Amino acid sequence: METEPEPDLPGEFVDLPEIYGEGIAPHVTRSVDFVGDENNPPAGGPMFGNGACPDEPEGAPTFCGPAPWGIYRMPWEPETLNHNMEHAGVVVWYNTSHREFLDGLEDAVEDRLRDGDLMVMTPYDRMEEETVAITSWARIDKFAVSEYSEDRFDEFVDAHACRYDAEGFC
């Protein structure tokens, strides 16, 4: 588990033990308030783990996790996606309705999914408007939509896909 900042890696280090204490990855059956702390959207922490989720967030059982890898236009609960990051995945969160931008981002994520990367892309309206965040366990790169580039995306995913693999999914 990453416990040091490792400055050479892309994105910012999120000190999960400082935020959550020693039990940084407990399975919970309650919502966690990620808004207002340095872990929004989350880059790990408490997670839902009450069984695997269905193919779509709508109608998913309460407290399910992890979500199936893929691209979604309906939001997953962040506690569900924390479980995806614990399983070596990268999550792309967005709060924008710009269709042209989202089409390009979906293409980039779809290419990575086809190549076998463990990824989820989901809307997340609990962060600032016109913002994108890419997270993996204990790392976040959060920026304005206008600051997005394929190079930035690729650099983060190349460095962090399967970097934290607590349960041997890669």
Question: Brief overview, please?
Answer:
The protein is an alpha/beta fold.
Write up what this structure looks like.
A 6-stranded mixed β-sheet has the order 1-6-5-3-4-2, sandwiched between helices. By secondary structure, the protein is of the alpha/beta class. It has helices spanning 16-20, 78-86, 99-114, 150-160; strands spanning 12-13, 70-71, 90-95, 119-123, 131-136, 139-144. It is globular. Strand 3 (90-95), helix 3 and strand 4 (119-123) form a beta-alpha-beta unit.
Radius of gyration: 15 Å
Shape: globular
Largest sheet composition: 6 strands, mixed
Task: Tell me the helix content.
Answer: 10-25%
Q: Could you spell the SSE succession in H and E letters?
A: EHEHEHEEEH
Number of strands: 6
User: Uncertain regions: pLDDT < 50 for 5+ in a row?
Assistant: none
